[in-house]
Amino acid sequence: MTDFGFLPSKIDRVVVLSGAGISAESHVPTFRGEDGLWKNYRAEQLATPEAFSANPELVWEWYAWRRSLISKCEPNAAHHACAKLEKALPESWIVTQNVDGLHRRAGAEKIVEIHGSIWKIRTMDRREERFDWDPETGSTPELIPWSEAQPRRMLRPGVVWFGESLPEDGLDKAVELCRTADLCVVVGTSGLVFPAAGFPEIAKHAGVPVIDINVQPTNISSYADAFIKGPAGEALPPLVDEIIARSG
Ligand code: BV8
């Protein structure tokens, strides 16, 4: 049983920073685990604009495979705990690196998807962006859908690739939330991908207590105020209940 003595006595604004590990118990492969997505490919091969212009079919097939896999996954207790927290503490937000949409399917609404969504497609210049796949029905577009508005412009997955800048509005919102929260809860991230990996440090430098939940220690746990070792689906629900008890 975790001793929550490290928590502030009054908590109203929580920012949750989630990574692929929060979806591991939903059987969505993480990026760097033994069943990781990158196991068969290197990030540079697929999740980059260069890979897409070099081989759009391969990149679209990888995303279509991931979409079909994720559409069979359900939000787990950790996603539901985040949604419960967000509903109980109206000033709380979820900033996720994940593109799987499971926070939304668990009922959360105040979500910043800083790396976009696998359920979206867009043009390279972001002028056209839309949800194109309903995860409930599992229907999918033909590969490499053309943009109706600009027939000669290929549409691409609505995610942020390596070497691409994060959308400014999402980045600014995430930084603002980390600076002004009463508590920062980091869940299931290796802390290797920037600038997201730097968000907990922004909170820490702003005097916001940082909790890291992971099945193994990371760089973030080395400076967090508390490290809770364990699967997100087990560690997060009791922590959320304790936070809610200290709110309002
Ligand atoms: C950018 C969408 C400006 C696509 C993804 C310094 C500053 C700025 C940039 C950089 C920098 N250094 C390097 C860079 C470049 C690069 C980068 O960070 N590279 C890394 C590899 C070094 N960053 C970028 O390119 C970013 N853009 O900065 O723009 C710029 C522009 C040009 C040139 C330079 C800079 C864009 C990065 C976004 C990439 N897109 N996803 C897609 O999904 O297909 S990243 C992708 O990988 C995920 O979204 C996620 O963010 C990341 C994986 O990280 P995690 O979520 O942490 O997952 P991982 O598998 O690694 O870890 C899982 C963790 O869970 C583990 O710790 C495990 O122990 C734990 N776990 C497992 N099971 C459980 C669990 N925990 C709890 N419970 C469990 N059950």
Explain the overall architecture:
The chain is of the alpha/beta class and 248 residues long. It has 2 domains: 136 residues, Rossmann fold (3-Layer(aba) Sandwich), CATH 3.40.50.1220; 82 residues, SIR2/SIRT2 'Small Domain' (2-Layer Sandwich). The protein has a 6-stranded parallel sheet with strand order 3-2-1-7-8-9, sandwiched between helices. A 3-stranded antiparallel sheet has the order 5-4-6, covered by helices on one side. Helix 5 links the parallel strand 2 and strand 3. Helix 4 packs parallel to helix 9 and helix 6 runs parallel beside helix 7. The two termini are 24 Å apart. The mean pLDDT is 91. Bound molecules: ligand BV8. Ligand BV8 binds next to strand 8.
